[in-house]
Structure formats: structure tokens, C-alpha cells
Amino acid sequence: MNKKLQKITMLTVVLFISFSGYSQKLSELYTEVKSSVVVINVINISSASVAGEIQSVAEASLGSGVLISDDGLIWTAAHVVQAAEVVEVEFLDGDVYEAQVVASNPQADVAMIKIVGEFKLKQKEVAKIGDSDKVDIGEDVFVLGAPHGFKQSLSRGILSGRYQPASLSNDFIEIEFLQTDAAINPGNSGGPMFNMKGDVIGMRV
């Protein structure tokens, strides 16, 4: 084997080992965090004109969220729950709970909902909150959610950019938006973005 061919062979082996290790890492991270990600089913009540009369119409929608405390506090997007009459949370293990909105910031599009009544953690994992300031543009990230109702769907990408509006929110809270090229679809809203340590660094809004 000549030296040039040997170098190509060695490079191929190194790349194969590198990508194999990365794939294994991602699958392990998915296993660790998937039970913290929830599907949020919402019933919204709106007004509509029917045969010249104004009537209330119930509409169903869904989004995603992530469990951030062992007493049933869940982080999601404000637009998922802001007009909700009924909020229902479904976990990976099949447990379903009613929830209520306890905090919301529509300008930042973030909200907190909490399980109503007794919450049983069982084998569910509480997500770890990371520091988005420590994730650089170009680093790998992954997103979990329920796009088009497909539960626990994973997509991978990189942190593509950051955006800070010139103005602050009405609550004088600094807002930063993170951009990613990870595939995101309707139903992902409120789903967490993870770094490659399995820490939540953002959410789909």
C-alpha cells in the first residue's frame, strides 16, 4: 500500500470512528432526556359568526413542553397556551394530567404551566437547564417535540445565530432569540432545544 492510499484509509477510519461516536452520543442523550419532553393538548374557545349569530367554537391544537421541576412545572411557548380553556399534558410513559398557566410573557413567547393536583414523577426525568451564553454559534444542538402530532420526534442541527431585539420586553427582561437549522414543524412549538450535554438552552417559539 502506498503512503497516499494509506493516508486516505487512515482518514476514512478516523472519520468513521468520529461519526459513529457522535451518533452513539446523540442516541444516549435522547434516551436520557426524552421522558422530560411532553405533548401539550389544548382546547381553545373562539367566537365565530354562524348563520348570522355569534357562537363559541372549540378548537383543538397541540404543542410541546419540557418538565423543569419534580412538582410538575413545565416550560412551553406562550402562544401554545395563551388562549387555552383546557390544557392537557401527556408524558412519554402515558400519564396524562390537566395543567394550568401560572406565568406567561407573550413578547418573549414563553410560559410556565403547572400540573393540577398530585403529580407523580415515577421514572420521568426533570430536564436540566443550561446556560445558552456558553453555547457558541456552530455548535451542535438537537430539538425534541411533537411535529404534526408525531410524539418524541428528534431533529439535529447547529446553533446558526443569535438575535437580541433593540428593545426590552414590557417586564424589562432581556430577550435573546437563538436560530438553528434543525428541522422544526408545527407541533414543535414549546419544545426544548438541547446542547450536546443534554441541557436545555432554549425552546421552539
Q: What is this entry, summarized?
A:
The protein is α+β, with helices and mostly antiparallel strands. The protein contains two helices and twelve strands, in the order H-E-E-E-H-E-E-E-E-E-E-E-E-E. It is globular.
SSE layout and pairings?
Elements: H1 3-33, E1 37-50, E2 53-67, E3 73-76, H2 78-81, E4 84-90, E5 96-105, E6 110-115, E7 128-129, E8 140-145, E9 153-163, E10 177-180, E11 192-195, E12 199-203
Give an overview of the whole structure.
There is one protein chain. With 205 residues, this protein is an alpha+beta fold. The protein folds into 2 domains: 28-34 and 127-203, Beta Barrel (Thrombin, subunit H); 36-115, Beta Barrel (Thrombin, subunit H). Helices cover 17% and strands 43% of the residues. The strands form 2 sheets. Strands 1-2-3-6-5-4 form a 6-stranded antiparallel β-barrel. It has a 6-stranded mixed beta sheet with strand order 7-12-11-8-9-10, with no helix packed on it. The protein starts with a helix and ends with a strand.
